[in-house]
């Protein structure tokens, strides 16, 4: 049986009015931030929302939260339009952002306020459990503003889980975390997904993290969806891979040969790095053998999501 | 000591002045307000000092002005506190509605006002031996009207902050004071020049303070004044709520997160 749709977005569009400039005595040009974005997220699915800076990721999340008004389009949580049922629906949604902060209250007091806003039953128990999960129990009575960026991020994540959400909107949730803590956060997120079927919409600049955590990725460029696939699927659309050869004899010949065929090549010591289309690797190696170029080791780095991101961002810079 | 570094700080604040209308406004606003307010009070004392209980009039004006000031301050400063702590998106992303937020800060303002006024009345009694509560329950409707006046002023000021952001936060402290000269806190409306009296006729607090002076001097409530004040207050409160809602919708168009 197909899982339930927890979030359905149709033709979501946001145009920021440029406002009136008294200096120029005319209206500024409006900015198209998000254009006809449509997608669905199913129960227990983790979807990555990727794109270069200014692609419209944060604006999309803010519209999903209702803190930015959409210009057009509809947002439905659990099949219900958010405009008409906001308090009821937001009861099952939560959010965390690396850019958010908390008031000058202790960690416990801050979480208690949110527990009350979401009308959580037995809030003390829930807070204790979450602080323990995020390794923050010892900071319970510390003022939130006195925490390090990484500690604050963990408190904000605890806030995000306080109401047993069915869907979480996470805007760069692991930014500013040390790698080991980021890893434990990812594990926690995956556990919540598996145990409770929590769905997540996830933005991050860490492509390895997105590849690890997300079932599906939506790629935004200039406010539009340009691709939607699994992390592997997107990576595979990048045709080039990196071929590394530890050359014993014929390094200069290899360099000249690769450059002559238009393959970018970098040489460091005895190691040559050739960027080449995946389906041309075999033919390339064949030709090296014919030219009597000998190598002792070989490795092929397959394209990753990061390569896809760089390729897409490059396209944006060209356009 | 480097004069260049001193100049750098000087330039930093000069640039700020260019962008921060509130600071510029501050420079002229407070001196002008004090001159008008205390100038008018002096004129009144000069004319009527012999016939009025000056200490009671002054101190009751001072204490009850706190009602209006405190209730508007709670609305605006509670909004500013969320902005200062970058917490507004966190709060508005919950099931909380904007009307629930308004009700919460208004109630909070009521509670804090209650303690602030209680403290003020006690202090006046302790320091000057003046019991402003001597007129008893007759003060209740006046206090209620001042409280509501604070709410509509607070809603308008909070709406302006929501729309224009923290660069205009000075309105949280100065907004209500704009009405002070026309509220007849320490002197009757008749002391104001003709144009000032026309403005005061549209300020509900002016009827309240005039009415309170009647209560203090004659022990009677001027019902006509009370009704005029109530009518205007209710209209302004409805308009204030509408304005706040409109500014909130405008802010949503721009994005609440852009405020932080």
UniProtKB/TrEMBL annotation, chain B:
InterPro entries: ABC2_TM, Nod_factor_ABC_transporter. Its main location: membrane. It comes from the Bacteria. The chain crosses the membrane at residues 52-69, 101-128, 140-164, 170-187, 229-248. GO terms for cellular component: membrane. The keyword Membrane applies. Keywords: Membrane, Transmembrane, Transmembrane helix. It comes from Candidatus Beckwithbacteria bacterium GW2011_GWB1_47_15. The keyword Oxidoreductase does not apply. This is ABC-2 type transporter transmembrane domain-containing protein. GO terms for molecular function: ABC-type transporter activity. It is found in: Membrane. It is a multi-pass membrane protein.
């Amino acid at each position: 049986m197909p899982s339930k749709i927890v979030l359905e977005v149709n033709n979501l569009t946001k145009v920021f009015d440029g406002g009136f400039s008294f200096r120029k005595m005319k209206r500024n040009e409006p900015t198209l931030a998000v254009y006809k974005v449509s997608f669905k997220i199913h129960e227990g699915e983790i979807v990555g929302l990727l794109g270069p800076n200014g692609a419209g990721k944060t604006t999309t999340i803010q519209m999903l939260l209702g803190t930015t008004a959409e210009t057009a389009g509809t947002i439905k949580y659990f099949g219900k339009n958010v405009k008409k049922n906001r308090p009821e629906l937001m009861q099952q949604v939560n959010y965390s952002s690396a850019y958010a902060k908390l008031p000058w209250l202790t960690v416990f007091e801050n979480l208690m306020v949110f527990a009350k806003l979401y009308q959580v039953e037995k809030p003390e128990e829930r807070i204790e459990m979450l602080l323990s999960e995020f390794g923050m129990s010892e900071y319970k009575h510390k003022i939130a503003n006195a925490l390090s960026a990484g500690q604050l991020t963990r408190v904000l994540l605890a806030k995000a889980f306080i109401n047993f959400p069915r869907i979480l909107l996470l805007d760069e949730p692991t930014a500013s975390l040390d790698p080991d803590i980021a890893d434990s956060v990812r594990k926690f997120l995956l556990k919540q997904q598996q145990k409770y079927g929590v769905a997540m919409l996830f933005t991050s600049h860490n492509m390895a993290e997105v590849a690890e955590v997300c079932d599906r990725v939506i790629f935004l460029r200039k406010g539009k969806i340009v691709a939607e696939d699994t992390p592997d699927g997107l990576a595979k659309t990048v045709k080039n891979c990196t071929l590394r050869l530890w050359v014993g004899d014929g390094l200069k010949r290899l360099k000249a040969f690769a450059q002559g065929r238009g393959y970018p090549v970098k040489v460091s010591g005895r190691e040559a790095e050739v960027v080449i289309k995946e389906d041309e690797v075999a033919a390339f190696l064949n030709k090296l053998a014919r030219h009597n170029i000998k190598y002792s080791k070989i490795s092929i780095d397959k394209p990753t999501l990061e390569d896809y991101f760089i390729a897409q961002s490059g396209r944006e810079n060209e356009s | 000591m480097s004069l260049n570094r001193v100049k750098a700080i000087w330039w930093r604040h000069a640039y700020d002045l260019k962008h921060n209308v509130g600071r510029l406004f501050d420079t002229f606003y407070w001196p002008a307000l004090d001159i008008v307010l205390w100038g008018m009070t002096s004129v009144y004392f000069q004319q009527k000092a012999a016939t009025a209980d000056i200490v009671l009039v002054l101190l009751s004006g001072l204490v009850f002005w706190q009602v209006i000031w405190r209730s508007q301050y709670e609305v605006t400063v509670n909004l500013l506190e969320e902005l200062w702590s970058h917490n507004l998106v966190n709060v508005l992303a919950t099931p909380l509605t904007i009307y629930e937020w308004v009700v919460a800060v208004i109630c909070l303002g009521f509670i804090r006002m209650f303690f602030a006024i209680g403290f003020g009345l006690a202090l006046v009694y302790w320091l000057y031996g003046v019991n402003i509560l001597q007129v008893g329950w007759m003060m209740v409707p006046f206090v209620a009207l001042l409280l509501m006046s604070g709410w509509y002023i607070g809603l308008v000021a909070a709406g302006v902050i929501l729309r224009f952001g923290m660069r205009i936060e000075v309105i949280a402290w100065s907004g209500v004071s704009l009405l002070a000269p026309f509220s007849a806190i320490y002197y009757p409306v008749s002391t104001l020049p003709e144009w000032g009296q026309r403005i005061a006729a549209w300020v509900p607090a002016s009827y309240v303070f005039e009415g309170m002076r009647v209560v203090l001097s004659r022990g009677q409530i001027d019902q006509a004044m009370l009704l005029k004040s109530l009518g205007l207050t209710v209209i302004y409160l409805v308009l204030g709520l509408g304005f706040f809602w409109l500014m909130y919708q405008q802010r949503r168009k721009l994005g609440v997160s852009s405020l932080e």
